[in-house]
Amino acid sequence: MKITLDVLQKRKNTQKITAITAYDALFGRIFDGEVDVILVGDSLNMSFGGNADTTNISLEAMIYHTQAVCRGVKSSFIIADMPFGSYAYTKQALKNAIKMIKATHIDAIKIEVKPDKIDIVKALVDEGIAIMAHIGLMPQFIKAEGGYKIKGKTATQADFLLDSALAFEKAGAFGILLEGIQADVAKTITQSLEIPTIGIGSGRHCDGQILVWSDAFGFFTQFKPKFVRRYFEGEALLKQAVRQYAKDVTESTFPNENESY
């Protein structure tokens, strides 16, 4: 059964929302139906593209990967990130969001925004686009903020985050992604909203959780954030399998007669 916007919103206070990232048709197909939401995140610029941060990925690259994921996903709700610089002002945001919607089969778009961009959220929603607002630690802002910094450590920050979430809810966002926010603050935000929250590094009281797949399944091992739980040692197991394959080839045990025409 296809997960719809109504299904996600009804999960509020009833059932946790599960979410994971995917960047291609192969992993989209593997994750499809196993989680409620698949996010085509601009995190692919780092985990897939090998770049230092998310800020230099293009809209065209996001569309390419989103198209691939959509080919592999039939049941899960699909959200795609708008990349840095593609929604700086309302006219540009509308043009690029519509372009992404028309080029793919996504269900919604996620944007990293502060309250001064609330008119952009309103305009996109008025155009009929389902929008998830991303607040807290926003990777697209790391150059301006001097790195990745946990949010909500002070009362001023906590109030700002709550006010932001409430403003985006009022503007029509269907949900809020809370990244890198103190757990007690994320809990307050979640309890104050009628729309669902999905957390990453923001504690267990959010309405759902998301992880980057390469973090969760052990394929990215250079650094492990505190909030990541590894469910699989992917890199180690894959390397072991590759070494066995190479050994079989060099020792002429692959292919055998049953594997030959």
TrEMBL record:
<keyword id="KW-0460">Magnesium</keyword>
<keyword id="KW-0479">Metal-binding</keyword>
<dbReference type="GO" id="GO:0008168">
    <property type="term" value="F:methyltransferase activity"/>
</dbReference>
<feature type="binding site">
    <location>
        <position position="81"/>
    </location>
    <ligand>
        <name>Mg(2+)</name>
    </ligand>
</feature>
<dbReference type="GO" id="GO:0005737">
    <property type="term" value="C:cytoplasm"/>
</dbReference>
<dbReference type="InterPro" id="IPR015813">
    <property type="entry name" value="Pyrv/PenolPyrv_kinase-like_dom"/>
</dbReference>
<dbReference type="GO" id="GO:0015940">
    <property type="term" value="P:pantothenate biosynthetic process"/>
</dbReference>
<dbReference type="GO" id="GO:0032259">
    <property type="term" value="P:methylation"/>
</dbReference>
<feature type="binding site">
    <location>
        <position position="110"/>
    </location>
    <ligand>
        <name>3-methyl-2-oxobutanoate</name>
    </ligand>
</feature>
<comment type="similarity">
    <text>Belongs to the PanB family.</text>
</comment>
<comment type="subunit">
    <text>Homodecamer; pentamer of dimers.</text>
</comment>
<feature type="binding site">
    <location>
        <begin position="42"/>
        <end position="43"/>
    </location>
    <ligand>
        <name>3-methyl-2-oxobutanoate</name>
    </ligand>
</feature>
<comment type="pathway">
    <text>Cofactor biosynthesis; (R)-pantothenate biosynthesis; (R)-pantoate from 3-methyl-2-oxobutanoate: step 1/2.</text>
</comment>
<dbReference type="Pfam" id="PF02548">
    <property type="entry name" value="Pantoate_transf"/>
</dbReference>
<feature type="binding site">
    <location>
        <position position="112"/>
    </location>
    <ligand>
        <name>Mg(2+)</name>
    </ligand>
</feature>
<protein>
    <recommendedName>
        <fullName>3-methyl-2-oxobutanoate hydroxymethyltransferase</fullName>
        <ecNumber>2.1.2.11</ecNumber>
    </recommendedName>
</protein>
<dbReference type="GO" id="GO:0003864">
    <property type="term" value="F:3-methyl-2-oxobutanoate hydroxymethyltransferase activity"/>
</dbReference>
<keyword id="KW-0566">Pantothenate biosynthesis</keyword>
<dbReference type="GO" id="GO:0000287">
    <property type="term" value="F:magnesium ion binding"/>
</dbReference>
<keyword id="KW-0808">Transferase</keyword>
<feature type="binding site">
    <location>
        <position position="81"/>
    </location>
    <ligand>
        <name>3-methyl-2-oxobutanoate</name>
    </ligand>
</feature>
<dbReference type="InterPro" id="IPR003700">
    <property type="entry name" value="Pantoate_hydroxy_MeTrfase"/>
</dbReference>
<feature type="active site" description="Proton acceptor">
    <location>
        <position position="179"/>
    </location>
</feature>
<comment type="function">
    <text>Catalyzes the reversible reaction in which hydroxymethyl group from 5,10-methylenetetrahydrofolate is transferred onto alpha-ketoisovalerate to form ketopantoate.</text>
</comment>
<feature type="binding site">
    <location>
        <position position="42"/>
    </location>
    <ligand>
        <name>Mg(2+)</name>
    </ligand>
</feature>
<dbReference type="InterPro" id="IPR040442">
    <property type="entry name" value="Pyrv_kinase-like_dom_sf"/>
</dbReference>
<keyword id="KW-0963">Cytoplasm</keyword>
<keyword id="KW-0489">Methyltransferase</keyword>
